[in-house]
């Protein structure tokens, strides 16, 4: 199960890609470095509240909505995972990732 920081990072990545922003562009809009955005998206960074709010403002998305969509998506993946063989699940997730880019 993914942790809170991974869930937040997934939501940031999804919204950034939907808006066709690079990590550099998002970093500039949120007044932080590109490496920080990359670490946040990867779930490797402990995100301070001011950083989360800056990213949400830059993406023009509410923090609650960003997290709710992320949790809903994770729940759907979990439900799907129970129906597929591990190899098939890997293929589905690769396709999903390629469509998100």
CATH superfamily: lambda repressor-like DNA-binding domains
- Oligomeric organization of the protein chains: single chain
Spatial extent as radius of gyration: 14 Å
Q: Could you give the order of the helices and strands?
A: HHHHHH
Number of domains: 1
The CATH topology is what? 434 Repressor (Amino-terminal Domain)
Indicate the CATH class: Mainly Alpha
Number of helices: 6
CATH architecture: Orthogonal Bundle
**Helicity range:** over 70%
Tertiary shape: globular
Major sheet, described briefly? none
Which segments are poorly predicted (pLDDT under 50) over 5 or more consecutive residues?
Answer: none
> Count of DSSP E strands?
0
Distance between the termini: 23 Å
Fraction in beta strands: under 5%
Average residue-wise pLDDT: 80
Structural class: mainly alpha
């Amino acid at each position: 199960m993914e942790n809170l920081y991974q869930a937040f990072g997934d939501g940031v990545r999804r919204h950034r890609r939907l808006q066709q922003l690079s990590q550099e562009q998002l970093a500039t809009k949120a007044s932080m470095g590109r490496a920080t955005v990359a670490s946040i998206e990867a779930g490797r960074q402990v995100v301070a509240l001011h950083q989360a709010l800056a990213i949400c403002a830059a993406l023009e998305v509410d923090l609650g909505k960003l997290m709710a969509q992320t949790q809903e998506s994770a729940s759907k993946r979990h439900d799907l995972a129970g129906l597929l063989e591990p190899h098939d699940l890997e293929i589905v997730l690769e396709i999903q990732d390629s469509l998100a880019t």
